[in-house]
Amino acid sequence: MTIIGSGIASKNAAETLLSAAKYWDELTIVTRDEGFFYSRVFLPDYIAGELSREELLLAGAEDLDWRRVRFVEGRVSRVDTKEKSIRLENDDSLHYDRLIIASGASPKRLELRNSDLAGIFYLRDLTDADSIREQAKRVERCTVVGGGLVSLKAACALNSLGKHVTVLVGSDLLLSLVADRAASGIVQKTLEAQGIRFQFNTEVKEFEGDAGRVRKVLLKDGSAVEAELAVIAKGVRPNLDFVRGTDIETEKGILVNDRMETTAEGVYAAGDVAQSADLLKSGRALFTLWPNAAVQGRVAACSILGRSRRYCGGLSMNSVVFYGMPFVFLGMVRERDTAGCDVQTWRSSSSDNYRKVVVRNNRLVGAILAGNIDYAGMLYWDIRSGREIEDPQSYIKGGIYASG
Length: 404
Fold this sequence. Notes:
α1 runs parallel beside α6 (290-304). The chain folds into 3 domains: 2-39 and 57-106 and 237-304, FAD/NAD(P)-binding domain (3-Layer(bba) Sandwich); 109-232, FAD/NAD(P)-binding domain; 324-402, 2-Layer Sandwich (Enolase-like, domain 1). The chain is globular. The chain has 8 helices and 26 strands. It has helices spanning 8-18, 43-47, 126-136, 149-160, 181-192, 290-304, 376-385, 393-402; strands at residues 2-4, 27-31, 69-73, 76-80, 85-88, 93-95, 99-101, 105-107, 120-122, 141-145, 164-168, 197-199, 204-210, 213-219, 224-226, 229-232, 236-238, 254-255, 267-269, 274-277, 284-286, 317-322, 325-331, 342-347, 354-360, 363-370. The strands form 7 sheets. Strands 3-2-1-7-19 form a 5-stranded parallel sheet, covered by helices on one side.
């Protein structure tokens, strides 16, 4: 049995497989990471010095039966589903009987002039985090390109280190893929209060350097932003080049069914690389999110073990705390996605507490909680279950009563 990748999907798959001792004598995990089974979600906290390397390790990883796990470090260059083999970039070859592809995703890179200057980073793995953390000791002005969660968390980490941080956002609001305009405004206000600066509707033209190191980010409107360190966070692409041209069908990711099976016999996919069913919309989509990957890894392993477990579909879900202010984003909440839905909102006049619920055909399909996140778990499970909602206002009222 072989797994490609070493993130949360891989870890949960490994746990499930190793629990069935009578079936598997040894598990091979192929990883290109320097470390394995650590939390990428908390890399910004590691950069800020709030977590140690040891604290990044995924809970439970230390309990694995390591005697039955063989780790192979290397990048996969090709999977041959006919020969059931995996070829690495160093030309080594491995054979598998069953395969789970949990290879994750890589940052979308800016192919611009001088984008290879020292001091320009992408934050995806522990090596990236180590480099940013070390470089940050020697600089004062930092620029973050992107307005998503990874960008904002990176900005907060650098700001916590006492750096001057400017965030360049391509759209006119933060978190444009997961939040509505009201919640985005609260996030912006929260971060600006801590000294983080934002420039909206910007597009990077190129980088300018001195002695091989980045010094400025040049924008297409002719302006420039000083940057001794730049973090680029403009989304990710699934790592699936090594399956192209095989009988493993792909679109944006590797297509899987509700058992996480691919179109190749004996091959499964899970995590950021898998294009799976969408819980709230028709068709299949990419969900590059920790909770979805965690479940998918277990489902893939259960399928191999012959256990009856199905993946019900991906759901957009994000939870984050910015300087003590918690936010939860669930499902369909952006203005462009809520046309024809029953939308209920509430915002405190004396604070930034904000709640929004979205109901379609008497079923909850989206929610935002800011400040007071009571009942977040109930909202999540109500979306998941698809149960009929009698009174959407009850979610709003509950939040008001809970906050006094």
